[in-house]
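Minutes, project huddle
Topic: does the predicted pose make sense with pyridoxal-5'-phosphate bound?
PN asked that the exact inputs be recorded in the minutes so nobody has to dig through chat later. Recorded below.
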Amino acid sequence: MQNIADRISLLSTESAFDVLAKAKKLETQGKDIVHLEIGQPDFKTPQNIIDAGARAMNEGFTGYTPANGLLETREVIADYCIRHKGVKTNADEIVVVPGGKPIMFYTMLSLVNPGDEVIYPNPGFPIYESNIKFVGGVPVPMPLLDENDFRIDIEKFKESITDKTKLVILNTPSNPTGGTLTKEDILAITDIIKSRDIYVLSDEIYDRIMFDGEPFSIASIPEMKDKTIILDGFSKTYAMTGWRLGYGVMNKELAKHFTMLMVNSNSCAASFTQKAAIEALTGPQDTVVYMVEQFKKRRDYVVEALNGIPGISCILPSGAFYVFPNIKNTNINGKVLQDRLLEEAGVATLAGTSFGSYGEGYLRLSCANSMENLEKAIERIDKFIRSNI
Ligand code: PLP
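Predicted holo structure (tokens), as shared on screen:
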């Protein structure tokens, strides 16, 4: 008898980790698996960043830092947000945390009371819905459909706003669809919510991985600046998933609450990691440019190849490193296809429903793998589909 608190049953998971575990088990049984399930760059952290982290450790910089992060790191982040996102901010509005995820959690804990409605992208990063439910909020899905380039349907968005809407979550470029919101989309969303007491969580973790156009942060719009919490971090842009470093940008008052949550949960993000972050943002950016070029080449190959497979159609994502093919015409359910591709074809993918109910009829493939492995995966998927539909 464990007497676990009721709230724990409200949490749900990221199935990428479950599929990874299943794939690893098959590998120990001698099966060859191509991994397209996990969402992390297949590149090494750039050497100058590793050196900066190691130098900090060797110099004894291994103790606690202030709970909201080193002033030096927050200043560099603020400067980066001004330069890169066009957001007028300063170090008092930055809270440094271990990875991007804590910003989601702290946003819900700080803003959402039981019964408050939160509009979130569906399909979308699964932790949004899990966190909303955990704090007793009401998740209101905002469908992202391929016939609309996985962008928000502004009319439907307008209809989903009620007096109980407390928070809207935006994620551009998006996991899992790779779709991006245009500047016009963001201006239209702003027009609808700017006169209301509604906050925005703007998840911009993929905003350096864009193939067409430039990112546009809702927080760069003066009326939205103090109502927006930006989530960003180092995991994707600098291939630093295991370093656990992210940050939020928010108004000074909210930053105090986020800092209090840090004091109560983590104390601070790792000190030497925060030093490495300074090098990441101020050092050479050529490795980021190289990585994005590789993701673009892979995206172009994978999308074209998928569109040549019967029953599959795939639109060209404009950012991130995922593709989200529509598999409805294969007449195979997404979860069944996910399991059969893994067990029978040796390709680990994720069913679209891992990202919410509107993901039914889709698969998510991560292009964070070598061209050679992507070619192998496509060959296997093609063979499997042709012999099963
Ligand atoms: N936001 C989105 C949309 C993501 O896809 C991810 C990770 O996959 C995160 C946030 C979390 O990033 P981190 O690993 O830095 O916590």
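Observations noted during the meeting:
- Residues 39, 99-101, 125, 171, 175, 203, 205, 233, 235, 241, 246 surround pyridoxal-5'-phosphate (CB under 6 Å).
- The CA atoms of residues 106 and 352 lie 26 Å apart.
No decisions taken; revisit at the next huddle.
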